[in-house]
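Audit log entry. Action: structure prediction of a protein-small molecule complex. Ligand: pyridoxal-5'-phosphate. The ligand was supplied as SMILES and no pocket hint was given, so placement is left entirely to the predictor. Protonation state taken as written. Sequence taken verbatim from the request; no trimming, no tag removal. Recorded inputs:
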Amino acid sequence: MTMTAQSMTASPTAELLRDAEQSLMFIVKRPEAVMVRGKGPYLWDTEGKRYLDFIAGWAVTCLGHCPPVLARALAGQAKALINASPALLNEPMIRLAKLLTDHSCLDKVFFANSGAEANEGAVKLARKWGALRKDGAYEVITAWNSFHGRTLAMMSATGKQHWNTLYEPKVPGFTRVPFNDLGAMKKAITPKTCAIMLEPVQGEGGVWVADRAYLRGVRKLCDEHNVLLILDEIQTGVGRLGTLWGYEQYGIEPDIMTLGKGIGGGFPLAALLAKDAVSVFEAGDQGGTFCGQPLAMASGLAVMNEVIGKNIATKAKNRGNYLRRKLKALEGELGLSNVRGKGLLMAVDLPKSNGPDLVTACFKRGLLINAPLPNSVRFMPPLNITAAHVDEMVELFADAVRNTP
Ligand SMILES: Cc1ncc(COP(=O)(O)O)c(C=O)c1O
């Protein structure tokens, strides 16, 4: 690329934005800002503008941006061992697996790099179990409106209507049913069903909470029909819903659970956990170059020790209740409705379908929020935010709602 007279006079930010447009593959329209720094619930861009981050990298930075405990763990591990081999054990890998199994109902862990990869592993494990233990059963039932990731198989599992015709042909073996409809689930089970895969709260779909009777009923159906229950807790796990794992709030146990997002606190890490009885992989069935990578393991260990040791889930529950009260108090004045969610995964319906414009208006005011639906916005801040951060968010949000046509 040659340097033009214009580029020589452009500001560093303008140059970066131009280079981004020229060199990054287009996948989505991003705001015209370049982030350089983060601390706690705040991000700063190249122009020094501060943003209160109630997206948290899509429910990822559960301890806020650059938490010292994570920075220390990464720096320490980087000096000791950055990468060994997926075929060799490393210490943080063993410690993290033990921590996860000690604090959950699951017995075995496989580490992956992304949520989609962990979910792929969950479906592979269920299919292997079906091949060995259920006469070759391979079908997985998922819910409409669900989100399980962007690999080809997880796009087939995901219940997004507008993905139905994208990247055809679909991976076979997935059946989708309406969420929170036990009758539909029962009807969909066939002798070929090996697993049901659900999110306790559908996050990307717009924050729709599974009814207690529904998840308990699905667990019962699984037991009656010899079907595995896979809970995708990639968004809901690690304290997000106000308990360490979402399933705890339903009084049930999954056979398989997947984790991602918050578990690495911002470092790419995901995990597939399973009960002993369904951990049926044989040598060579599953793997990956970076599975159990020491930096990722050190991140997960630091985050999980902090989340468990400081009871961050209860903090998220209390702060979520506070956020709920603040939003409810504004319902009448701003025309908001249907405040919903659990812990610090919350959403509210807007009086108009102007979600994307509202997100832009918030961005201008230095607030990051997300609109999963045209008429809803979602809040998924770090789990350790203070009441003052909630107050600051609500003030910026209310001002944006009042002034966005
Ligand atoms: C419930 C759920 N499952 C899976 C995924 C996919 O995770 P990843 O983007 O890390 O592949 C997401 C991401 O938003 C999610 O919310």
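Audit: result stored. The two ends are 41 Å apart (CA to CA). The pocket of pyridoxal-5'-phosphate is lined by residues 58, 114-116, 119, 147-149, 199, 203-204, 232, 234-235, 260 (CB under 6 Å).
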